Amino acid sequence: VPYGIVGQGLKEVTRRVPLDEPPPLPENAKLKSIGKPVTRLDAVEKVTGKARYTFDVQLPGMLWAKWVASPLPHARIKSVDTSAAERAPGVRAVHVLERLLSTAKLRDPKAEQSQRYPTIRYAGQPIAAVAADTPRAAEAAAKLIRVEYEPLPHVTEIEAAMKENAPRVFPGPTEQPATAGGGGAPPGLPQKGNVRGPDTKPRGMGPRGDVEQGFRESDVIIEAEFRTQVQTHVPMEPHGLVADWRDEGLTLYASTQYVGSVRDEAAENFDLPKNKVRVICDFTGGGFGAKYGIGNYGLLAIHLSRKARLPVRMMLDRREEHVSGGNRPNSIQRLKLGAKRDGSLTALQLQAHGSGGVAGGAGVGFAHSTLYACPNVRVEQYDVFTNAGPCAAFRAPGQVQGIFSLEQAIDELAERIGMDPLALRSKIDVSGTDDSLARAQERRIGAERFGWNKRRPAGSDKGPIKRGIGFAQSQWLYLVHLNTACEVRVSGDGSVEAFSSTQDIGTGTRTVLAQVVAEEFGLRPEDIGARVGDSRYPMGPASGGSRVTSSLTPAARNAAYRCARELANRLARVLEANAEDIAFADGKVVVKGQASKTLPFREAVKKAGFEEISQRAERRDDYEGFAASMRDMGISKHGIGGVQFAEVAVDTETGIVKVERVVAVHDCGRPINPKLTESQIYGGVIQGVSYALYEERHLDSASGLQLNANVDQYKIVGSREVPQIEVHLLEQLGGQSSTDARGVAEPANVATAAAVANAFYNATGKRIRTLPMTPANVL
Ligand code: MOS
């Protein structure tokens, strides 16, 4: 079945190198800076606390803001009295929200036109905020805001919300709830009660064949229900920004995954031209997919700053972050798989319900429609609305949940037909694509490194501690941030800088940027001033969709190449040489065949006698023969992915599961910095173990309040629970851009929970179909 990640009917793309682009790079071994495991240039700044995160921003006269959130999960606001708060000591401004940002599309226009305040749909929904001279004054004043509510019946649990008589989260019949989940549910789906769907086209991949016929043709049927939990966003630095409204323009210091979206959303909501909004983000303390735009906290901070005419800092606290900062939706997945005795799939059917609280986009079926060759596939995805905080994209949205069910079902099928799970994947992988070729190599490398041949039959251990090993595949999209730009500048003193608005989410953006630019000038990465995190620089990529390195580095290399060419032209005059004979290597300018003219880089530039030269370039793609919709979304014809092997020890008396070892083999195009690339994969595995074993939001269904909105009771993996992780990178050169870089961040998180679950089965002989694998779910 000719069915790859990007769909059917796409022609092979032959990349043409435009004239102003550098020639393809040789292998990393032949390079001086690219491909080297350089330690982060800002490592010392980070570990010594000198790096300025948004959380650390202090401006003269800055006010501290605190919001007031609803304690009720569903209510109409009858009145808001801010008079006492306004009179409280130290208070400079109070603002009451008349509309919400993230759920603006959720409102039923007819029902709410006459309402002064947005309807409360989850406990923790912001209502108003105060700005005061000190954090304590803000907190005290926020408590003085009096809100009168008319409570409405609520529902917080997915299954309760699916019942016919359940309270309606959105009463109107014509509403179009927002898709914040990143699962890509299209608008216009039918809705019945709180259930919207079915969406039968996960990420645009429609059904195919006839599943009933496929099941009739099968020899083996695997059928099971899988459940995954709500995982909240817990980045080290919570959401927040500092807004500074002045006559000359608005400056925002934002903890964000995309400077561009903060600027654009602020401009749109406050009717400002984009050139009057500047966004600065020196460092982002992590973000899993929810840090885009200004958020309701930002909306409030900007209003308050405009009123007070002073900078206003609004950072969410940990509780607010858990409740309103976004989450990975839960899922209930009913999966049915039909296969022939030789393993070939005849039919695959998934019915998946997920609840993203007051937001939609909980779909999980993309892997089911694309990962394996199967002629008959039908996926039905449903969003179930509940009175709970909105979901948001979360590291490989949908895919983590989907792979958990799919890869366990494939594991089960392998056992039923008496086939090795890896051999079964080789049989059913979509054949002939780059992705399936990569997966096959990765399975081979991983099996050897991990010792897959030592696998024993399920439940082999006799004692209470049972050990086992398991395997799962990862799959994600290779996305590109279209029109990513970068500027490279050489100053007259020989210093070199590179500029991009993109932010460092924590992955080392400055370092890879410097490495790529250094290569073209024959300099060291530390010689390059890598400037990021400012919307005044050429617009760089979002830290989302695993695409910063794959989008930024080609733009940077293209700009550096042009700038180096221009520098060569300038030097040719003063060195009396041909520009084509001038090269940059080892910190020097060398002229071919004229050793006596060799000069240190800085000295040579000074000699050229210019003030500065600079070049700007974009990431260029040749999308010829590519489906327009794919091109517009910046999706490459390749996917990105990998494989993971896990070893677990299950204590069958206490129900404690320990992941002891993970071997992760991932494709990455060209690793620009293998140390940072591997680091991404460590992070993905660690977050995957955390999701598999511990993380879970607990809502009290009576009150709608989250019971564990803190980091004590919302358990995240700790250093003692991190397994031994071995990472192997599969390089693929000659890719789609001038650096061949591809993303790794999201796929690294996709396979872990499924691999752990398959290892759990191999250890115990029992399937664990419910996450997280806490003692309560295990025993
Ligand atoms: Mo994301 S979940 O790629 O921001």
UniProtKB/TrEMBL annotation:
UniProt keyword annotation of Oxidoreductase present: yes
Swiss-Prot/TrEMBL keywords: Molybdenum, Oxidoreductase
Record-given protein name: Periplasmic aromatic aldehyde oxidoreductase, molybdenum binding subunit YagR
A GO MF term: iron ion binding
Keyword Oxidoreductase attributed: yes
Residue ranges of coiled coil: none
Ranges for domain Aldehyde oxidase/xanthine dehydrogenase a/b hammerhead: 48-153
Pfam families membership: Ald_Xan_dh_C (PF01315), MoCoBD_1 (PF02738), MoCoBD_2 (PF20256)
High-level lineage: Bacteria, Pseudomonadati, Myxococcota, Myxococcia, Myxococcales
Region described as Disordered: 167-214
SMART domains in alphabetical order: Ald_Xan_dh_C
